[in-house]
Amino acid sequence: MIRAFKVVLCVLLLACCALAQTQLNGAGATFPYPIYSKWFNEYHNLHSDIQINYQSIGSGGGIRQVTAGTVDFGASDGPMTDEQLAQSKVKLLHVPTVLGAVVPAYNIPGVSGEVKFTPDILAGIFLGKITNWSDASIAKVNPDIKFPSQAITVAHRSDGSGTTYIWTDYLSKISPDWRDTVGKGTSVKWPVGVGGKGNEGVAGLIRQLPGSIGYIELIYALQNKINYGSVRNSSGQFIKASLESTTAAAAGVKVPADFRVSITNSPAKTAYPIASFTWLLIPTNPTDQNKGKILKDFLFWMLDQGQSMTEALSYAPLPKAVVELEKAAITKQVH
Amino acid sequence: MLKQPGDASAQKLSPWRRAINLAATWFAIGAAVLVIVPLLAIFVYLLIKGAGSVNLAFLTQTPKPPGELGGGMANSIVGTGIILAVASIVGVPLGIGCGIYLAEYGRGRFGDLVRFTADVLNGVPSIVIGIAVYSLIVLREKHFSAFSGGVALGIMMIPTIARATEEMLLMVPNVVREAALGLGIPKWRTTLSISLRTASAGVITGCMLAFARVAGETAPLLFTAFGNQFWSLKLNQPMAALSLQVFTYAISPYDDWHRQAWAGALILIVLIVAAVGAVRIVTSRGMLKGAS
Amino acid sequence: MSGTVNEMNSPDSFNPSEKPATAIPTLAQTATQRKAISASSVLERIRQTHPRSSRMPDAAFAVLIVLTAISVFAIVAFVLWELVDKSKLSLHQFGLAFFYGHDWDPVNGDFGAMPFIYGTLVSSALALFIAVPLSIGVAVYVTEMCPIRLRAIISFLVELLAAIPSVIYGLWGIFVLAPLLREYVEPFLAKSLGWTGFFGGPMYGIGMLAAGIILSIMVVPIIASITREVLTAVPQSQREAVLALGATRWEMIRMGVLRNARIGILGGIILGLGRALGETMAVTMVIGNRPEVSKSLFAPGYTMASAIANQFTEATGDLYLSALVEIGLALFLVTLIVNALARLLVWSITGGRAGRARA
Fold this sequence. Notes:
Chain B contains twelve helices and no strands. By secondary structure, chain B is mostly helical. In chain C, helix 4 (88-94) crosses helix 14 (318-350).
C-alpha cells in the first residue's frame, strides 16, 4: 500500500510537468451521452490540447450544476422552465443538438410482429384502465394479430428522466384524463406499474416480465433488439419510430427563438409523435473567455460535421432549417 | 453439573444434547455453504461476462466513444487508486483515533454519544454523504475534484473502522495494559504499541472491510469526483473512477460497453483483493504483528 | 496474536489453579512478557534520566484522540445540519404530515414519505433476518469447527463479498436472482406459506423479497467478519472451562464463546444494519420502485435511499428537491431511532454494566 502510494506520488509529480491542456467540464442528460462522447472524442482528435469532459448525471443535475457554475456547460432532455431560467445566476441559451424518440416496447408471449397503438390505447394502458392484452380496443387496430389473454404489466422509470418527460408530455397532450390526474414531468406519480432504473432498467424489466410494456429511447430498443410498436400520429398514420420520422417531427413544428419547444404530437404527416430535442445549455456570458470561445467553436463544428455522425449511432439529426436558426442565434447571443 | 473426577468417560450424553450438537454443527456448515454459494455465483457470472474483455487495450487506454471498438478504463483504474488513497488517508486515522477514544478514554457519556453518532453515520446513505461533501467542498471551490471524492469516501470509512477498532481494543485483556503501566510505560505508548498491536488483526480487518465497501461505491462520487473521460492525475480536477465508469457503461444501450462494464467490475474486485491481500501479507510479516 | 491473549488470564476466568499475578520475574514465560521486561529496563533508564517525560506526550496524545472523536461528531452534526437546512422548504410546507403521508406526486407537489419509510424498515428487517443467523453460523464454523487449512480460504471468500460493487449486486439481482425468484422460489413460497399473507399477489421476481435477499448478501460479510474476529479474541480458557464441565461442542460454543462475544456480535450487527438502511444502488435495481405500502413480500416497494438516488439528479423545482432532502432527514432519524433501540437492547442484556469478558 505504501509502495503503491509512492508510485502514485511519482506519477503525480510527472503529470504536473505534462503539456498544458484546457479541460472543459459538462454535465447533464444521459440520453445523448453516446453521441456527445463521440463528438467530444472527435473534437479532441482535431484539437489535441482541448479536452471536453462530459458526465451524464441526469438532466436535473446538469441544470443545477450549470446554474451553480460548477461546470462550463449543461445538457438537458427537457427544456428549463421560465422560473428556472429566471433564477439562474448564469444566463443560458438552449442549443438543440439531436433528436430522440421514445418508443412503446413490449414483451407479449407469442407476438413477435409490430403492434399498432393509438393514443387512447397507450393512455389507457398507462392509466391502468386497459389491463389485459386481449382487450377489444387493442384487437380492433391490430386485426391480424392474435393476442394471448395475458395481464399487462407496465414498466416505467423509477428515476427522474427526460425520457419520462417526453412520454408524459405526449400523454398529457393526447389524453385529458392523464393530464388531469398525472401530468407531465421528469418524475410523476404512476397509477400502475413497476419502476426500473434508467432506460436499461426498463429494458431489462420488459425482457424479463412476460406481458410487459414500457417506454424506452429508440436507441435502447434497437440495440437490445426489443420489439416496439408503431403509434398513430395526429394525421392518422401509424408511424414506427425511425430516424426519418423523428427528424420529420421537428420539421413540422415552429421553433421559437429560444429553442425551448416540445415537438411531441407533431402535426407533420410523416412525423413520429413521441419525439423530442435534447439541448445543450450554454452560458451566454461565460466568465472564462477562453473556454467560451472553445465552446462556441465546438458548437459550430457540431452543427456542421457533428450532425453527420448522428445516424451511425441511431440519433436523428436536426432539420436544416433549425441548424441555420441555431447558427444565427449562437453568433448573436453567445459571447 | 459438576462432575466427579474419573466420571468423564463413563458419562453418557443424553440423545437430546447430542442431537442439538449435531444440528448446530450442520447449521454452521450449511451457513458457510449458503454464504459461499451466492459469492461464487456472482463471481462466476462476472467472469463469464467480463473476463473476455479484459485485455491490454482495456488496461491501458481511455474510453472510446460507442461504435469504436477498443478503448479501456486505464484512467478509471488509476483514478480509483488515487481517490481511494485520499479516502484512506482521511478515513483510517480518524477511524482508528475514534476507536481508540471509544475504547480507552470514552467510557462515559460523551463516549456514548460519539459511539452513537458513529453508528448513525454508518446508516447515512452514500448519496447523502456525497451531497453533504458537495455542499462543503465542491460548491465552495466551484469545481468537482478528486479530493472531494476522496473525502466523501473517507467519511464513509470512519464508522466501520472506529467500531472494529473499539471492539478489538476492548477484547485486549486489561492485564496487558496493567502490566505495561506497571512497568512505567506511558499510556499513549501502551495504547499504541501494546493494545493496538495486540488488536491489530481485527483493526486491519475493519479497515479492509471499510476499504472494500467504499471502493465499490458510485453514488457519493457522482457529485464530488464527477468522473473524467481523459487522463487526469490532479487532485483538484474531476477524476475518473472504476465504479462510476462501470455504472455509466452498465446503463448504456451498447453491448460493447456492457462487456466493458463487466470487465471493469472484475478489475475493481481484483484491485480490492490485491490491496487487501497486500496489507495482510505486509502486516503478517512482522510490521504490526503482536508477539505470539 | 491469539497466543498472547490466551496466556494472560484474568481473575475472572475459570481457572482456580493459577497463582495471582504478582512479581513479574516469576511469570516471565511468554514472549510478550520477555519483551516487556527488556522494554521496561530501557524505559526504567529513560524514566530515571527524564522524570515526568510521559506527562506531555500523554496529554498530547489524549488531546489528539479526543480531537478525532470530536471530528467524527462534527461530521455527523454537519450532515444533519445540511439535511435540515436544505429541507426547510418542505418541512415548512408539510410539517409532520410528511412522515405519514402516502402520496408521492412530484407533478402536483404533494409529497409523503410513509411508503419509503416502510420499505426501508421492511427490507432491512428482512435482510437482517436472513443475514444474522447465516453470519453467526459462518463465523462459528470458521473459528470453531473448520479445519485449519480451510479457515483462511473461507474467511477470505466471505470478505470478498464485501468487495463486490453494489452496482454489480444490482445487475446480478436483475439478471440472475429475479428470474430465479419468479420461476421457482416465489411460486413455492406462495403455495406453502401463502396463507400468512406475506407471499401473495403477482410474482414479478423483483420486489421486496429480492431486495431483502440482495441486502442480506451484502450485509453478511460485515457481520460475519466482525463476529469472526470477536470470537477469535475470546480467551481459550473460557472454552476449556466449559468443556471441562462436560459440555458438547455446541454447548461450549454457546456458553463459553458466544456469550462472551455477545456484545461484540451485536456491534457487528448494528454495523450491518447501518449498511442495510443506507444501501442504494443494489436495492434500487431490484425493488421495483413503487411507492406503496403492501403486506406481501412479492410486491414492489421503495426505500428512502433509493428514492433519493433515483430522483435527486433529475429533480427540478425547489420543493421537489427539498422533499427529497427531507427523505434523507427521515432516513437519518430512522437510523437514529433504530440505533437507540439497539442500544436499549444492549443495556437491558448487560443490566446497565459494561458486561464484557474483560479478561
